[in-house]
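[recover] target loaded
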């Protein structure tokens, strides 16, 4: 079971970082954000077809989906969102005949499907009457934790427009937003301890 949790976490982080950095690199000032998958110049390539807004939407979706995966709080939602996004990218790259790119995207889609299959017990409520009962060890989620996480997401998204005015500050905003979102679990724990203290 520990092995399953390990590879599931590793897979989620890999996919999250892949698409988070890909989206940031497309929208950042002069594409000055690291990412191993591209192309960062997609907007320029598709602008003659009046698809610049479409590319911006895809990039923003990549950022949010990647953020969901790497910050772990809503990782399963991110994995679900990634399926139609990857299917869309796959058929666009096939239509544009981009060499080996469709094969790379197909591998990433397969990885995401494997990630979803690892949580079939939680997802089977979509097609069956079997209710999902979370384990007792699952941490409690609170409104305060959700607010902290959402603030982290907003900070990270703000890094994109800030990159056109202050590039160094934008990197701190992007990193700080991720760290803040990760700390949402601490906010949950603090709220839970206060609730226990008030009840006793």
């Amino acid at each position: 079971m520990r092995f399953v949790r390990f590879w599931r976490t590793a897979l989620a982080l890999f996919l999250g970082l892949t698409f988070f950095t890909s989206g940031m690199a497309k929208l950042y000032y002069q594409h000055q954000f690291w990412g191993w998958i591209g192309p960062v110049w997609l907007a320029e390539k598709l602008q003659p077809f009046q698809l610049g807004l479409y590319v911006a939407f895809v990039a923003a979706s990549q950022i949010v989906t990647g953020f969901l995966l790497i910050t772990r709080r809503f990782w399963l939602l991110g994995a679900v969102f990634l399926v139609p996004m990857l299917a869309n990218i796959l058929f666009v790259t096939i239509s544009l005949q981009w060499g080996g790119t469709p094969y790379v995207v197909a591998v990433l889609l397969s990885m995401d499907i494997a990630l979803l299959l690892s949580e079939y017990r939680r997802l089977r409520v979509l097609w069956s009457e079997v209710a999902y009962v979370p384990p007792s060890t699952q941490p409690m989620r609170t409104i305060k934790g959700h607010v902290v996480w959402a603030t982290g997401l907003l900070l990270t998204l703000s890094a994109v427009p800030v990159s056109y005015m202050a590039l160094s500050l934008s990197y701190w905003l992007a990193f700080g937003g991720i760290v803040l979102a990760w700390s949402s679990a601490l906010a949950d724990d603090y709220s839970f301890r206060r609730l226990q203290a008030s009840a006793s």
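[recover] notes: The chain has a mean pLDDT of 86.
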